[in-house]
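Protocol step 4 of 5: obtain the predicted structure for the target chain.
Materials: sequence only (see below). No template structures provided, no constraints applied. The aim of this step is simply to have a reference model before the mutagenesis design in step 5. Sequence pasted as it appears in the construct record:
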Amino acid sequence: MRRTSRLARVAVGAASLALAATACGGTSSESGGGDGDGDKGLAIAYDVGGEGDQSFNDAAHAGLQRAEKEFGYKTAAIEPTDGETDADKEQRLTSLAKQGYNPVIGVGFAYAPAMKAVVAEFPDTSFGIVDSVVEGDNVASLVFAENEASYLAGVAAAKATKTKTVGFVGGVDNPLIHKFEAGYTQGVKDTDPKVKVVAQYLTQTAEEGGFSSPDKGRAAAEGQIEKKADVVYQAAGLSGQGVIEAAAKAKIWAIGVDSDQYQQEALAAYKDYILTSALKDIDGAVFALAQSVEDGKPLTGTRTFDLKSDGVGLSDSNPKFAEVPGAKEAVDKAKAAIVDGTIKVKTE
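Step 4 output (structure tokens):
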């Protein structure tokens, strides 16, 4: 039987935006804990790229680690497989629910069809999905205002560029990543209409490796650098590591995504060239759902994490960010305007 947490309320988005996860290998992992009564708690199923992407999946893993430490129960983190189908994802979610994990979270919009097929079979299990909306009495849809964080990244890029050309590399050409590009481009143009934005998507589908191919990201960034881009923002999962590597090699600025990539140990060799990162508090959202289940009041419905709730933001952990003339002031001003509604950020 599940223990009930003594914590009195759900702290949505409470995890630190800068929390970083340490990557490790393997196709799946389970961690023991608690009082040995077989108690099982949070399980997450990773998106394409898996653990170790220093970005999207690792942010979810950080939320799992926090829940594991806070509640002392057994957790599970399951890796995706190459070329997997919706049926494979459905089987993964079903297996976790049958084993007694609660909640079960699918990390990424790709889990939407599988989750729709599974949730009704396990009415006593709480499910969560990141970056998509799935209807159900026992489902929490954890979505983010990526466009707002990307707008701030665009403001920073416009202030940092010297060539008046900046780049955007999207992992997959789909509506979610369009939100990143739309916000970024708007932020750039609102700050300096003379700055040109060069955009490229790596693939049309995730199955083609858009989120899991650093070599594709590296080649795209190199092409944008040849076009004089001296700031490149990437929303490309694991592929983004190639973008950051190419930027560092060319000694121009990269802008990270989802996690504070300046803080990621695996990217330490390139950190001096990571100007900032557009943040999504995925770890906080994952932890919030786990905590709500512990409290016996599971979150359900659509939960939106935006600038106003500190569910998204922009990092300033690189000391060099403060040295870019006018960048911090412009970002702070833009954030305040988005929060109070003066600036409406586009989604496409």
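Step 4 remarks: The two ends are 46 Å apart (CA to CA). The domain at 146-280+312-339 is CATH 3.40.50.2300 (Rossmann fold).
Proceed to step 5.
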